[in-house]
Amino acid sequence: MRGARIRQSWRTLATLGLAAVLTACGGGSGGSGSGGGTGITPPPPPPPPVSKAEAYRFLNQATMGATEAEAQRLIGLGDSSNAYARWIDAELARPASTLLPYVEAAYATLSTQPNFNLAQLNAPRLEKWFENALRGDDQLRQRVAFALSQIMVVSQVGALQNLPFATADFYDMLARNAFGNFRDLLEDVTLHPAMGVYLSMLGNQKAVAGTNLRPDENYARELMQLFSIGLVELNADGTVRVDAQGQPIATYDQAIIEGFARVFTGWKWDCASTQPNCSFNTVRPQLAPVPGYNQIRPMRFYPEQHETGAKQLLRYSGVALPNGVLAATATPTAQDLDAALDNIFNHPNVGPFIAKQLIQKLVTSNPSTAYVQRVAARFNDDGSGRRGSLAAVIRAILLDGEARSAPSGANAGKLKEPLLRLTQFWRAYDARSASGRYGVQAGNFPGGVSNIFGQGPGQSPSVFNFFSPSYAPPGEIANANLVAPELQLATEFLNTQITNFFWTQAIARTTAQTNLGPDIMFIDTRAEQAVVADSAALLDRVAERLLGGASQLSATLRSEARAQIDRTPAGTAAGNNTRVADAIYFVVTSPEFALQR
Amino acid sequence: MNRQRRRFLRAAAAGGIAYAFGRTPGTVYAQMAGGGGYSDYKALVCLFLFGGNDSWNMLVPTSTAEFNAYYASRGGGTASSLAIERSALLPVDPLTPDPTGATYGLHPSMAGLRSLFDTGRAAFVANVGPLIRPTTKQQYQTAASTGHPLPPQLFSHNDQQDQWHSLRGREILKSGWGGRVADVLNSQLGGQQLPVNVSLAGQTFFQAGNVATPYVMGATGANTFAGFGTTGVAAERRAAFEAVAGASYGTIYERGFASVQRRAVQFADTVNTALGAARSFTALPDSGVQLSPLQTQLRTVAKLIDVRARLSMSRQIFFVSTGGFDSHDNQNDDQPGLLGNVSASMASFYAALQEIGMENSVTLFTQSDFGRTLTSNGDGSDHAWGGVQVVVGGAVRGREIYGRYPLLATNGPDDVGGGRIIPTTSADQYAATLARWFGVSDANLTQVAPSIDNFSQRDLGFMIG
């Protein structure tokens, strides 16, 4: 009941905010000026409907890729003052699509084959990821989970290679928490064995006096630097606070890292049913899925390896712990972890830090400081006095005037992540394979998806993700103190790989081809084939699908692509195929498609 | 404009030459005249060891007092030991003995590097790291009150990588030092067909210039464009693609993306045609032997050096990398493979350069996020500061250890806690020494290494000439 009421009040707020924005930039028909002297104020005109281009913009922010069908559904939900909020509310209520059950099922099949090894199960995890991205009905959740997976990073590259269930379950955990509370997310991330293995908190031991042994600092450092507060103190609008010398103020020092490192001692695999009297030293991961296996259970606290002394944690204005010090305890206690996560969660940086990163992943690389501040404020208080509501944050991000009013200026929007270029393209073209599987190895991605796109789910080269939120390519962008994180992946090499991928898809992997391998993903080009003889209509069809409207094509792209289409005569199967391929290829590889408006 | 483009296209197709044009003010036309700006050829190869190499286990003291300090601080003989046993180390014999009488050995997996060192083709620079000014332990400990400048965010991966890449100190810099070397030399390098900076390992801040733009290719070269050809519709497709990439766009994101698309087309044929003419190396063969990813990158570098004349190159900076050095876990198990690969890659790269007589013109040097703690977290080490770097090449004044190798004692004079060693040689000095050899004048050195004037020694002396 309480949740419902909060949601209702949210809708009201959002609606008001949005209406104000639309009035502010909606152009001449506002009618709020002085009337014609009649003394009668005419009723305000009804809010305009959502246009298809606006729907595409929203859906490219909120889903794994806009499609014409979803755009029509969104448009049908209401007008521009309420359709977005209604769409979001429905999404917030949808349960998460998952990866783990599919990976477990794949194990049941594959593990009986000779030479089976666990690392083979990373492929079915990717297959299911693509299925969820393309066909999951929890699109907002999947998009937010994908964003979170690039902030709180684990990767199959490295120590998790042979723990595929843990990696899959970690992603499912992110999806489950995508609209929950950030404090719960922090705890679930911290205690997940995938993270425990990846950043070596799992098995972290207490110091032994008289030896060189002291607690592992890895998780302590990255938890603060990357997952929660960042390196430097932030103002409420996400700008960096500086000291009297103009230098940024560090959020923590080495003593605080060591304090947290000591908090994170004594955690390891949970005991499994087959390991009844296990201890810190004897417990092992269960590599195969049996009911309740410990590879997917939160880590367990083993008091014998936990540091009991006082620990210096974060100091900030209003910090609950006296001077940020967690007091020593007589006996080892897992409550240290609760206190430490509370200490991080309540740091004033978390709101602006997480707000800005999520805005950058969903909406724009260079949000205004006011936009960051508005979203951070929702993090700090969701309207009911609660801190850390991710549902409130996501709503605030997507319903903000900066996300919804017409994009303006050279910094608006962002470059699409390479993988999202692919999922949007595949979603727009209803891509599928004959087998119904989303083959990630059988010919779709020679060398693997990361090899072509520079990015693959759960395949980051390090905890620093595929690209940095502060990446600024040299030249225009760096000189203007702006960033373009996704451009870090736009190298000549990867761009060519991706361009070639799309060429192969457009020319050789469509509904017009027969005899494709069973797992080869093909796109549905029947609508294009139907207008193939008319290059203008053909190009319009592609632009409607990929850009949300024929009018979205620039003059250059239209003229160059049309001319290229018409260099091949229609009428033969091969000719028609090339014409369709050129139409798709030129749009999907264009800077306009790479831009998320 | 359009007609001109088509005409050029036809000419190129008819002539069967690798053409590269764009709407960018281009380098390419000018270069057809041929000839880089220098009469000699020099290349720098930056080998970045991602994650933070635990280099105190790469070059290790072997003399009794120094080894004992190392062995104790690394927990030798305990369950959490990170120490290498003295008997396993590969002794090295520098031409100039350490004035303290200390002697050193290499990690047992690095026989290839030892051989390069013994023959004078490699040198070590001990205890080098990001610094703004020379820094003592006391200055470090009191920096907050005295304002003694320290590089910000010490012990953080990306920040310290950025320090190595950019030498930024506390300034906000938009460029890396490799990029700035290119900026400085660019006016003398008009004829080069490729940018000075080429990466075989992705985008790197190291190569970003204020003006000069790097080129990123794959580990085995550039991709060709699948839909493009030199005749007919496929040739027209390429021209149309370049026209789209060359159009003007309203957002910074489209402009950034379009410029990459343009360069990708512009350089792909140039690179691949040239690489097609490169020889196969015995030391880094094209087939029959499983090369590591690092060796594959270095093989391509060697091939590009082999065909330097075709590309009119006289100065090149290559970026290659290998990762996995963030050894918080399983260090004793992982380190032999990591360092063994580095050693074998250096040795085979040097041998490949010998095959084409270019070993005296090419200098490979390492950089890494940071050194690591001497103390153990159970089965690994954590982030620290100073460490040892390696320089390889015929122009290196080799078989020497430059800088001051510290006493590896916890709570020793150079330890700021936990066995985090303060560097006594700065990354600026290291970079400046390499940049001078490469051709940067003394007057331009501060542009490359902004803090160099804070250090008395502007050239560490490890390069000949």
Report on the structure:
The complex is a heterodimer of chains A (597) and B (465). Chain A has 597 residues and is mostly helical. Chain A is 46% helix and 2% strand. Chain A contains 26 helices and 6 strands. Chain A has a two-stranded antiparallel sheet with strand order 1-2. Chain A starts with a helix and ends with a strand. Mean pLDDT of chain A is 93; it is low at 1-36. Residues 1-34 of chain B have low confidence and may be disordered. Classes of the chains: A mainly alpha (597), B alpha/beta (465).
Helix and strand arrangement:
The complex is a heterodimer of chains A (597) and B (465).
Chain A: H1 2-25, H2 52-62, H3 68-75, H4 83-92, H5 100-110, H6 122-135, H7 139-149, H8 164-177, H9 182-191, H10 193-198, H11 218-228, H12 254-263, E1 267-268, E2 300-301, E3 311-312, E4 325-326, H13 335-345, H14 350-362, H15 369-380, H16 390-399, H17 401-404, E5 414-415, H18 418-428, H19 449-453, H20 476-479, H21 492-508, H22 526-530, H23 535-547, H24 555-565, H25 573-588, H26 591-594, E6 595-596
Antiparallel strand pairs in A: 1-2, 3-4, 5-6
Chain B: H1 2-15, H2 27-32, E1 42-49, E2 59-61, H3 64-73, E3 90-92, E4 104-106, H4 111-118, E5 122-129, H5 137-141, H6 143-146, H7 157-166, H8 177-185, E6 197-199, E7 215-216, H9 232-246, H10 252-276, H11 293-306, E8 315-322, H12 331-355, E9 362-368, E10 387-392, E11 401-402, E12 425-426, H13 427-438, H14 445-448
Parallel strand pairs in B: 1-8, 1-9, 5-11, 5-12, 6-7, 6-8
Antiparallel strand pairs in B: 2-4, 3-4, 5-10, 9-10
Helix pairs in contact in B: 4-12, 9-10, 11-12
Task: Looking at this protein, list some descriptive labels.
heterodimer, A: 597 residues, mainly alpha, two-stranded antiparallel sheet, 26 helices, globular, disordered N terminus, B: 465 residues, alpha/beta, 9-stranded mixed sheet, 3-stranded antiparallel sheet, 12 strands
